[in-house]
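Appendix B, record 7
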Amino acid sequence: MALREIARFVDVYEADLAAAFLESHGIRVTVTERFQTTVDPLMQRALGIRLMAHESEIAEARDLLARVKAGEFATDEGDDLDPMDLGTRAVGTLMALAAFITGGFWGNSLPRRFRPIAWQGMLISAAGLVILLAGFTLAVWWLTHLFLDPPRG
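Structure tokens (predicted):
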């Protein structure tokens, strides 16, 4: 039997959760595009992650996923994590920004153009450009005052 698409997800983890849910209800599914999207995460948005199943199980699988989206299987327990306070969120955001600026978010899976050396080089170039523009502005200001308001005496 041929496999057909049940649903398409933009996130591998969401697709895996849906696949596990359907498997627990007796529907055999396959998660496709897993390799391409984990090698290059930007491809998740472009390709999407598809759940595939046999044609005879498509209707039941789509019905189960629709019931999940409607909240039929939700519990009143809620989330088991305490909500994050504002101070912790602010510190985490600052740490993430500092790691990004200093090139802390890098690895073998990133393309060469996004590795930290390139970003650090761009930051150094931008700092040099700012210093150059500041020096040029100061020189123009000094020359303007020298010619328009020469020293007396």
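Remarks on this record: The beta strands are 3-9, 29-31, 49-54. The first strand starts at residue 3 and ends at 9.
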